[in-house]
Design a protein that fits this description.
Blueprint: H1 20-46, H2 55-80, H3 91-101, H4 104-117, E1 124-130, E2 135-141, E3 152-158, H5 165-168, H6 172-181, H7 185-199, E4 204-205, H8 207-212, E5 215-218, H9 222-227, E6 230-231, H10 243-246, E7 255-259, H11 265-276, E8 280-284, H12 287-293, E9 299-300
Parallel strand pairs: 4-8, 5-7, 7-8
Antiparallel strand pairs: 1-2, 1-3, 6-9
Helix pairs in contact: 1-2, 3-4, 7-11
Length: about 300
């Protein structure tokens, strides 16, 4: 099947530090070239007699198909990562970064350092969701063939020179700074949410399941928990940012149900991380909001979290 190039998903005249000329050239020549190359390779493969073709020819075509395909997909993610208009990450995205890296600032330091380390060479820096563990990781790649197996990239920084040379020459660091200032965080967060939801399908706990569970854990974000007045009966709060600090308290031979407000990515990713630690965790479908809507009892929260 012929791959069709996608239009630029942003106004290339609106990104500080990244010129319209650079972005249009990058999109038309490098991204467009990858799509054209992929189609040409697929056309050759479609007419190939594999039984009589030498192995080195098959190897070469399939290798080039992988390179062109990943180049197309990563460029689409790259352009889809830009154009946020300076919007800050949503609280849920900040929580996800803090849960995996210690803090959003620590994530940024590592991501930026990786990009600048690739300056003058080639490659990609990718923020990748790992379904196995429910975590995020910064992935390094020196070319288009390197990917974290099973990972879902949600943010891509292109560090090939064609991505910045027209504007910044050899000053790759200035380009990385400009990229960071132009990240479309709502789009990144949406991709993160989709990845978490896909990875956690089948881990839902119904209201009835939660009723029967001996271990119910409140994992709402700290700020949301502080503003709340009620909890599920006998459900202690645990910080979803610091799962490693409290996962060892939980049994590995009994069901554990975690809940957030609506049963979205906070409780889902927490359940995935707990399961990676050997705990039979599931998330409450609909969260505490669904629990209340089903007419189930709640109890008053004892106190707010300590501050400072």
């Amino acid at each position: 099947m012929q791959a069709r190039p996608q239009a630029l998903p942003l106004d290339p005249a609106t990104l500080p530090g990244l010129s319209e000329r650079l972005l249009r050239s990058h999109h038309q020549n490098n991204y467009g070239g990858a799509v054209a190359r992929l189609n040409a390779i697929r056309a050759q493969l479609s007419g190939l007699d594999f039984a009589s073709t030498p192995g080195f020819v098959v190897n070469g075509l399939k290798r080039e198909e992988l390179i062109a395909s990943n180049s197309m997909l990563l460029h689409e993610l790259y352009f889809g990562s830009l154009g946020g208009g300076g919007a800050a990450p949503a609280p849920g995205m900040l929580l996800a970064l803090a849960a995996s890296f210690g803090s959003a600032e620590r994530w940024r330091e590592e991501f930026v350092a990786m990009g600048k380390a690739l300056g003058g060479g080639s490659g990609w820096v990718l923020l990748v969701f790992q379904p196995r563990d429910g975590t995020l990781v910064n992935q390094w790649a020196s070319d288009h063939t390197q990917a974290a197996s099973g990972g879902v990239p949600i943010l891509a920084l292109d560090m090939y020179e064609h991505a910045y040379h027209l504007d910044h020459g050899a000053a790759a660091g200035a380009y990385v700074d400009a990229f960071m200032a132009n990240i479309d965080w709502p789009a990144v967060y949406e991709r993160y949410q989709r990845a978490v939801h896909a990875a956690s399908e089948g881990l839902e706990a119904s209201v009835q399941d939660a009723q029967q569970a001996r271990h119910r854990i409140d994992v709402r974000r700290a700020g949301v928990y502080n503003a709340a007045t009620t909890i599920l009966p006998n459900a202690p709060w645990r910080d979803p940012v610091a799962i490693d600090a409290w996962a060892g308290e939980l049994p590995t031979d009994e069901e554990v149900v975690v809940y957030c407000v609506y049963g979205h990515e906070v409780s889902r990713s927490t359940a995935l991380r707990l399961r990676a630690a050997g705990i039979k965790a599931r998330f409450l479908q609909g969260g505490i909001d669904g629990w209340i809507a089903a007419g189930q009892p709640v109890q008053a929260k004892a106190s707010a979290l300590p501050t400072g």
